Amino acid sequence: MEKKEVQAVPNILPESGLVRLSQIVGDRKNGIPPIIPVSKSAWWSGVKTGRYPAAVKLGERTTCWRAEDIRALIESAGGAI
Predict the structure, then answer these.
(1) What is the domain count for the chain?
(2) If we measure between CA atoms, which residue out of 6, 10, 5 comes closest to residue 35?
(3) Is 9 inside any structural domain?
(4) What's the domain range around 71?
């Protein structure tokens, strides 16, 4: 079986709107680099404890975060998360 080469796509945080978890913590399989380099489980743990912003549920299996909240998190940490 031949391995598929994945090209990295720049991961740019939009000014406003909603972003999915894979856009925040990255997705190696699809070549999406992380904005905040933590694991998914660490992210969810941080959401639960209040370290990371609360999620916005769009449906039963769809969860997003406000881009403004992610941007504020990065700014409050001085760019070092």
Answers:
(1) 1
(2) 10
(3) no
(4) 18-76
